Amino acid sequence: MTNLGIGLIGYAFMGAAHSQAWRSAPRFFDLPLDPAMTVLCGRNADAVQAAAGKLGWQETETDWRKLLTRDDVQVIDICTPGDSHAEIAIAALQAGKHVLCEKPLANTVAEAEAMTAAAEAARANGVRSMVGFTYRRVPAIGLARQLVAEGKLGTIRHVRAQYLQDWIADPEAPLSWRLDKEKAGSGALGDIGAHIIDLTQYITGDAITEVSGQLETFVKERPVAAEHSGLAGTAGAERGPVTVDDAAVFLARFASGALGVYEATRFATGRKNAIRIEINGSAGSLAFDFEDMNLLHYYDATEDARTAGFRRILATEAAHPYVEAWWPPGHLLGYEHGFTHQVVDLVTAIADGADPAPSFADGLRVQRVLAAVEASSASRQWQEIPE
Amino acid sequence: MTNLGIGLIGYAFMGAAHSQAWRSAPRFFDLPLDPAMTVLCGRNADAVQAAAGKLGWQETETDWRKLLTRDDVQVIDICTPGDSHAEIAIAALQAGKHVLCEKPLANTVAEAEAMTAAAEAARANGVRSMVGFTYRRVPAIGLARQLVAEGKLGTIRHVRAQYLQDWIADPEAPLSWRLDKEKAGSGALGDIGAHIIDLTQYITGDAITEVSGQLETFVKERPVAAEHSGLAGTAGAERGPVTVDDAAVFLARFASGALGVYEATRFATGRKNAIRIEINGSAGSLAFDFEDMNLLHYYDATEDARTAGFRRILATEAAHPYVEAWWPPGHLLGYEHGFTHQVVDLVTAIADGADPAPSFADGLRVQRVLAAVEASSASRQWQEIPE
Amino acid sequence: MTNLGIGLIGYAFMGAAHSQAWRSAPRFFDLPLDPAMTVLCGRNADAVQAAAGKLGWQETETDWRKLLTRDDVQVIDICTPGDSHAEIAIAALQAGKHVLCEKPLANTVAEAEAMTAAAEAARANGVRSMVGFTYRRVPAIGLARQLVAEGKLGTIRHVRAQYLQDWIADPEAPLSWRLDKEKAGSGALGDIGAHIIDLTQYITGDAITEVSGQLETFVKERPVAAEHSGLAGTAGAERGPVTVDDAAVFLARFASGALGVYEATRFATGRKNAIRIEINGSAGSLAFDFEDMNLLHYYDATEDARTAGFRRILATEAAHPYVEAWWPPGHLLGYEHGFTHQVVDLVTAIADGADPAPSFADGLRVQRVLAAVEASSASRQWQEIPE
Amino acid sequence: MTNLGIGLIGYAFMGAAHSQAWRSAPRFFDLPLDPAMTVLCGRNADAVQAAAGKLGWQETETDWRKLLTRDDVQVIDICTPGDSHAEIAIAALQAGKHVLCEKPLANTVAEAEAMTAAAEAARANGVRSMVGFTYRRVPAIGLARQLVAEGKLGTIRHVRAQYLQDWIADPEAPLSWRLDKEKAGSGALGDIGAHIIDLTQYITGDAITEVSGQLETFVKERPVAAEHSGLAGTAGAERGPVTVDDAAVFLARFASGALGVYEATRFATGRKNAIRIEINGSAGSLAFDFEDMNLLHYYDATEDARTAGFRRILATEAAHPYVEAWWPPGHLLGYEHGFTHQVVDLVTAIADGADPAPSFADGLRVQRVLAAVEASSASRQWQEIPE
């Protein structure tokens, strides 16, 4: 089987998740190409060396540009903060490398547009690109999309989506790069709000056309962390400004006329990673919560009123997306499995000469919603999403 | 409309619940007879007077035998401890009064047999009798029985039932009449175990034929309460023996071959009134928990594996038993509504000249299972239920 | 004990609920006055006569003005559609009658202001008034307010509230007075949205200061029902316009800075009466769903991370609001109990010469939020709530 | 770092799970030795070759005895059916190889005794042995054990445990080796009942001393599958006898006096892998369900009644067992992670010269309970567990 050399840039939280995916995918799925964990890239030579040993990468580089010149690397996997996505991705695509880029696609619409244009140009040369909205590949989410596509929900009326975390609810939680607008672009909005925008558009097959939103930074200053590289850190005496939103809420209108209500926050005390999506249609409803990620709740309104009720579907059957490759029914999958499924779909698309989804254009569409929410928060009016 | 005079004996917890039922039933249901809250009976003249005023009874008596001679009383409603059930019920039936008797029917099989014989004899004269297994009349339970009767579960394989409470988990909880074998007959077994025996036989339409059980009294001595009349009390320095079981567990075999597992306890810390029943059949399953008493969970195994799942049926639709008389969907019923439904069914049966269920014979059948569990606990062997 | 004569106007859904409350309250609670179910009022003589017999009222009237002149009536209980609230309530107050008025207080802010002024004027004469936001009196809700008031949640950051029903999700569900702006004032917004506005302000002790909202009528025309008096009806060939909203969504800002997200809809297929409220504070969170109305979920963020978790509090302990009067722990209360508690609080306030809550001024505050949501939907901008 | 050569025997369901564990453990945990996936063993040369390629093993063998002579293999990992456990494990231990043996330890008590004796003998030479009760290493289960060990539950009163599956509820599900007593030893009892016996003894730190049980084979004959090697198969016309139990139920008494109720079945329609454990003590309770495996429910009875309630602990905090090595809070772990934790603990014990748990003696103790349940089912009496 042909090798597919991977170059991964970044080795923190996302880098570890992607590494596990590249390692596991060929062990459970029949891939048409054989991914090789060729090179891990990071700026600090010692740190990247240590990470490569730990995560199982064969070699290291400290300059991502080097990856683009290597013949043994066919895929660039970008797990850096958002401020470097555009530069790396565009260069990689121009160098003829397939690109998997973590979400949000970029920190600005302009960057995302440039990236999408680069992806379109590269596509003409058979170069593939994909943005990492991994949660699409949770089996229960895949099932949700199938049920909507099959018409089981009828006309969609309501979309309600929340992404609730609480990791900075404590005002003494330290600054990290995720609280720095320069690095992260935005706060809860882009980091987690982007996921529920993508997921709801993906599940419904519909597009948000306008929004009315509000951003809020509840805690304006925080202790400066000794290190800025992760979610956690050690608080010191020095304080610095939080330059991104702690929470974002917005109303949305879909092309179909459906009403959306969205909330992304890092201040929902007690909620750790609660991606909650509920969709109500004229013929049925769906509900999902990532804190019970193997479950999809489905209500069929066409059933006899006497026995109708939300079904607790344990999405661990062979009939559910991706599940056949794993364990028997009732043996749960976890967070990291979505990344493995992402690798499966990307590698398959590359081998088939097909376009993987979500595309950079899909990422751009999400970026435009994010920008519209920000604009609406400033203007205190509804804001349309340009098509 | 013809009056139906009620004489209620006992005015503690059960007396209050029955009073609310007699009061509410005609306000929500179209009854064929008009129940009159004629007379409340209790041994202490002052206390019964006060209770009658509070609970809404027109008159009082201190000797239950007086009720049997009153022409304005057609129904004797027995809410006393189990040790007086047989005497009162048999006398009432012989006096031509319809009888509603709280569960368990009696404290011994012999008493229950005599009561059943008396009920049979009275029946020939058009006198009706009923035992108060009220939980049968929770809408979700009624629905469960319907689904089994319709064959939706196929062949029943498993019955698992628990009645979990914790009100004496604290060793300093005081003695009450419910912990006194003379008064109560048994402890958790007869008080709450009786309910799950009745409910599971009712829902499945099947009969337990043999059991292997064990009783346990975890706390052998307790403070003597100032008063013995209720669930609560004030602990003093004096201690007395607990003469009933704190918990009862048993395996059961049904006539159909289904396997049952039962547990009744007052020591399940944190469980307040958790009547949990799960039934697995070849074609489907049902699950119920009284702590969410408006819900029935139903799994249809004949559905497509992709969308099969336990349905959370909110049994508040007009299509569900008894519900049409109450509120719109989603407006929950509570504990006391079962008693109201019991009144509806009893009054209807009296008017129709029909036998209400559960009959004293049904109560006797439960009593025989209780006795077999006790015998098995002593013999450490399986014990058959005589037919 | 002194009698307190009640005159109830209206005998549909709300009338039945209020009747059960007047009947039950003195049977479970020690009231300082003895409510008499004196007179039921409705325009159709035969229908009101039948209803009075069914619901247990002593006499009937067909003209509500007659009630105001009766010496045996001290309380006017208004259960009519919103378009008559103002006229009746103001006249009653001026006649020196205490008033309990169903929510929403009125169909317009102007009416609500006039009613509030009348209530203020009457108050000087010892006349009491109260608006019927009954859900405040669900024990779990009362507990929620206590916990917030005790500071257990710290600084409130997020309020998210949904009132989800589905009774007109079917486009063929017929017109009723609730879909007629003349009668009902608004649709989901005023009927159910009013409840979550009131509940969240009540629980948090905070006030909404501005909103950005959107109303939607998904189904513009519906079959004309044979009768317009209830939730259900029979569809005919004729169709008429729906003049109220099917759904209302809005963002809100509280005086404290907390962010609110609200949604009220009659199109949430599978949700029957789901009043869902979640409140996140710096020190803890609360969650409630009326479809499990006896439960409150509470997260204490000050606990050890190892054992912290949302607590499923079964609000049926004697320590919980109103519960001591009812049943032992784990014996659930239902929808109608809130109405009984409302009667208890009103009668107690009247006897004590105290002001019951929620006052007409509280109702006016809710009305102003409703009006601001409507205005915002039209202007597509944020709208402030006048103080 | 020193290599630790692994030889895995068997490559079906369990072999795949163990392979993923050997592969992942060093990527997330800091292991003191470096496990090498040296050799995979199976009887069919082609099949084992294919499996080795798929699962990532360097070499293959078709005779397990060869593994015992290889210097590059230090650990024998036994994933074969139970009938070969004793022979392989004893030979491996005698050859000085550390042994990880899948559960149940053996098919008979005699075999398990011989294995335990062999483990004891080998231990003197620094050779380690461990039985694969993997569920002990689910973080929520580890937390449960900690809480009990810390006394948070007080005196344990009740243990109730169910292992519910439904994969042969359909009478047409084909025969597999798991339904053949020669291969599997027993059915639901040994396959899944063994897990809940081990888990409850592990969590409570207590031992079952006597049991009263019943086994049942609901479906006596089934279609002969084309292949016998997995859970699934293709039904043919030929039928063969089911020689193991479909379900096992039993009561148990613990050394402490606690009462246990157990149920293991493959006929609980709709339950896929529901390992449900609830433990009630005088000071608190715990509840767990593997279908929500990241959750532990904990009730603290010493809390104020007003706010006491089962806490839904999402066991994904760094403070929870094993979790720190994985993802941020709320990012769930799955079924396979328990196997990875097992590898971590085994490798650590080998490096430390310590005895890993659960030992073969622990496995023997479970085997004796299994045997006592079988004996009790035959004798219809309680059966003591020999010490």
UniProtKB/TrEMBL annotation, chains A, B, C, D:
<dbReference type="InterPro" id="IPR055170">
    <property type="entry name" value="GFO_IDH_MocA-like_dom"/>
</dbReference>
<dbReference type="GO" id="GO:0000166">
    <property type="term" value="F:nucleotide binding"/>
</dbReference>
<dbReference type="GO" id="GO:0016491">
    <property type="term" value="F:oxidoreductase activity"/>
</dbReference>
<protein>
    <submittedName>
        <fullName>Gfo/Idh/MocA family oxidoreductase</fullName>
    </submittedName>
</protein>
<dbReference type="InterPro" id="IPR036291">
    <property type="entry name" value="NAD(P)-bd_dom_sf"/>
</dbReference>
<feature type="domain" description="Gfo/Idh/MocA-like oxidoreductase N-terminal">
    <location>
        <begin position="5"/>
        <end position="131"/>
    </location>
</feature>
<keyword id="KW-0560">Oxidoreductase</keyword>
<dbReference type="InterPro" id="IPR050463">
    <property type="entry name" value="Gfo/Idh/MocA_oxidrdct_glycsds"/>
</dbReference>
<dbReference type="InterPro" id="IPR000683">
    <property type="entry name" value="Gfo/Idh/MocA-like_OxRdtase_N"/>
</dbReference>
<feature type="domain" description="GFO/IDH/MocA-like oxidoreductase">
    <location>
        <begin position="144"/>
        <end position="286"/>
    </location>
</feature>
<dbReference type="Pfam" id="PF22725">
    <property type="entry name" value="GFO_IDH_MocA_C3"/>
</dbReference>
<dbReference type="Pfam" id="PF01408">
    <property type="entry name" value="GFO_IDH_MocA"/>
</dbReference>
